[in-house]
Task: structure prediction
Amino acid sequence: MSIEVRNIRKNFGAFEALRDVSLRVESGELFALLGPSGSGKTSLLRIIAGLELPDSGSVRLNDEDTTRSSARERQVGFVFQHYALFRHMTMFENIAFGLRVRPRESRPPEAAIREKVGKLLELIQLSPLGNRYPAQLSGGQRQRVALARALAVEPKVLLLDEPFGALDARVRKELRRWLRRLHDELHVASVFVTHDQEEALEVADRVAIMNRGQIEQTGTPAEIYDHPANAFVYEFLGDVTRFDGEYVRPHEIGISRRCGDNPGTAAMVKFIASAGAVVRVELQREESGETVEAEITRERYRELALGVGDLVNVVKSGLSPF
Amino acid sequence: MRSESKLVRYALILLAAALTILFIVLPLAAVFVQAFDKGWEVWKAAVTEENARAAIRLSIIVTAISVPLNLVFGIAAAWTISRFRFRGRDLLLTLIDIPFGVSPVVSGLIFVLVFGAQGWLGPWLSDHDIQIVFAAPGIILATTFVTFPFVARELIPLMQSQGADEEEASIVLGANAWQMFRRVTLPNIKWGLLYGVVLCTARALGEFGAVSVVSGHIRGETNTIPLQVEILYNEYNYTAAFAVASILSVVAVITLVLKKTLERKTREAV
Result:
């Protein structure tokens, strides 16, 4: 199953949410829409699902034009940002909902519904909690139920709006690996919206970077990280610092002691954050007064024996187009 | 907690309790004392007397029609306001509140102005032999108007705070509009809805001002319970007046108990 949107435009009053957006997601692909809040990524997802109508442009699911068909006819699986579980139903009934509302002639018999929901509860490892209500579960558990509920109707495509946004860091990491494995077993086209670049780059096969209602760049995580199409993409993907008026990644700044023929220009160490895998050093350059941020390994940090107030040499090691 | 603030606290609690007893519990008790002053038999005779029975019947009919109407209007209005953005939305919100802001007497007069013999539609109505004012239809219209905001006002904040997410989720999962309403919306708003209906019912049974204007006070025909109480009272028939009034008081007490229970349930549902 593939997803394709062509020349989508959408305004909310005077606000241009989407300006001529086109993209194609192939079957089996896990695709990320990455961008800051207000960039139009959720609007695009809702248009694909049929929860919102575009002002112009078309939506094609599996190469069939579905622009005018309603959300209930599109057979998409949608996982809402805040899960939107039915609060008065047990987990079991939540997952069974999509099967129970089918017209009588296509509705599976009760035994088949029970079996299917039981399997899905097993898949999300919540079998013992089928009789609980949403309010009695943790965020991570609710998230998995929301996903199981979407999968129960065997959707052609899976759409997830900030699927891990409301979870704490540890659960997030666990769940996104789980989602990746699940996606690979399902053979569907999946699109998820996120503002977290690490999440998008780690999980997705391809990523579209969105900004102010437009797609800035589409590509594999490696492509867009190594060859950002413009300054926005470059800045959005990870930390940047300015060096000689150019954007540079902090890990591309080299630090050395001021002695011998060590390259670079003079800068003073203003601040050191040494907790974590890399050490972050804030420096002020002697000549220009420019503040530069550098990231060095712990090993290098110990080797240099840096302290606040030290005078060192800084040099730009990497090459960047901006 | 310091001792003087504790003292102030107890003094305030005592004051509130005293005021409640003085203005609410005592009068309510007085109604029942008066109603049963001359014994159970007299009470029974007063409330089963022909005109009293007619008044009770009319009140029940009026309530049985106006409450379901406002149930439907209320859900429709709350749905429109909480689920859609449109021009004139604020105006609609204000319009819903008009019956609360306008004196019931004025509400009654509006209907006389429109449907009365000298009113805008008066000649047309009399040509077609339709009587609205000084008849049951007028009373139903006035009661429906006065009680209109109760259900809508209760549902709007509830539906706004619950959001449309669950409804959208049900649609994406393949539910049609009726399935969405029946399986998702209604279970989520049921306690708030019941709460609104209870208040609406209490007001419909007890409405005096607007109904008084459109009723015409025809004994045994266009008197509701409150109007019947007034007539009996004006005739110095105190025991009978209080006996009929005791019915309304019982309704009030039941309303209060239901209200308390439903309030808690509604809070849990948000």
Summary: Residues 50-83 of chain B form the longest helix (34 residues). The interface with chain A takes residues 165-166, 168-176, 179, 183-184, 187-188, 269 of chain B (CB under 8 Å). Chain B has two domains: 1-35, 42-269. The CA atoms of residues 69 and 144 of chain B lie 7 Å apart.
